[in-house]
Amino acid sequence: MILSRHSLSTVNYVSRRFVQNLPRNVRLELDSEVNKQLTSDSTKSAFFKEHKGKFYHKNVLPKQLEETINTVLSDIEPQRLKVDMKLLADHLAERHLPMEQRELQTIAQNVIQNLIDTEPRMNTLALSPEQREEINLKRQHELVKRLKSSIYRWQPLSFDEYKSKIYLATNFASHYAMLSQIFNEIKKRERDFLPVRLFDFGSGVGSVMWAAMHVWGKQTFAEILNVDKAREMNELSQLILQKGQPNKTPLVHGVVYRQFMPHGRENVFDLVVADHTLFEFENRFERLKAVQSLWYNVKPGGFLILVERGNIHGYTAINEARDNILNRIAVSAETINKNDVEEMNDEESLKENDDSSFTKRYSPAHIFSPCPHDMTCPKAQLNTPCRIATRFRPLQIFDLQRNVPNFEIAQMSYIVVRKGERDKNDIYGTWPRVIEPIIDRKNHQHVRLCCPNGEYVNVPISKNKHGVGLHRLSHHAAPGDIFPVTAEVIEDKSTTNKENEIISSPRRRRAYRT
Hints:
The radius of gyration is 26 Å and the shape is globular. The longest helix has 29 residues, at about 160-190. The chain contains 17 helices and 16 strands. It has two domains: about 20-55 and about 430-514, no CATH class; about 155-420, Vaccinia Virus protein VP39 (Rossmann fold). It is about 40% helix and about 15% strand. Keywords: Iron, Iron-sulfur, Metal-binding, Mitochondrion, Transit peptide. It comes from Rotaria socialis. It is found in: Mitochondrion.
């Protein structure tokens, strides 16, 4: 494993604003196989942009699909469509997760205490009953006003036919690009994996389905199950399959639409996806319960994919689902004792009362992407979201084509969990992943890496210290790339002692802002 935990024992300083450098006694080198490829490749500059750790995919909507969407949107006046798309995009960008009951109680207590502390003192015994009643009404009015300004009022999204079309025009292209990038990484890393059954929970207008068919082909899937509680969304997704004509035969067979989660179909689907869906549950318990149900529908060797917006709220939803799967659902049956089962039967752990059912449903799991490890996310300690950018071309609406930019950047927080043990021979499991934009300096670059040992470090890479190959590789790196490097611990006591002295002294600590 690259960058063993022992080699990074000195990196113990945790801050919300800083990330530590790679220790000096750890030396990075290009992976041997990648170095051979670099030496034998005649087009070296192209190699740095397209090496095996990059999973760039051409995120442009197919022409026929784009024409079909334009046909579906043709009955909406262009300027009205433009205004409503902006309103919906702003609303979705500002959405938060619903507040839990404990959070609400804490906020209410703080508001009440603050109101009591700031209220001027008065002798209420000297007041008449009418005056006391008037003061109490003013207090209640001020209390309600402060509570409204302090508490986020979450509401689930509701769609009719018109709102579904606005959602289609606003989000289809970006969601399609995000899923295409994720699916493309799975296809390149697991060449023998061919999904036959796809389950899209919260399918909306079908962006997941179209992205999967674009990566693996329409003939690959025998069944595609789309589940969305909004009937209008399902009808719009089916209309796109029919090229915008209600009476026409669908382009793809085996597509099924439902409004509720399937029951009694465990271990069936090769791909289970929930794309921008976790925000629609009213509390954490319901979210994790849905994640558990989705996990039980994944076939052994299959993938569970969860995607949300790349902000702190989307990252929080993804991270809590990640921790729940690794620490509560996919635990080894041999390590479960009676006390563990009793602990997992409470509401927050979402476990069932039947021990035999739990053992039957047991299955190991590991993080396939983007994390190269199964430990606690290091960015959670820094209170910063882990997110990956994807570049996409917005939907080219014919009537608004002059005002549409060529390409845009969308941020996503996501997790891909595979049902099964981690392959120890997988070379991708020994490489870290770039999770921040590269910081260019005059003679070096700062590369922020999430390492297989669970550490988040900053690596200053220069041509003189690391060589031309690694320097050029870092120059062309981007967030989301797997960085094909290996690490070696230099057993030098003098260097190690000097490093320990530097880390132990707060005044001499060097750090870089994230």
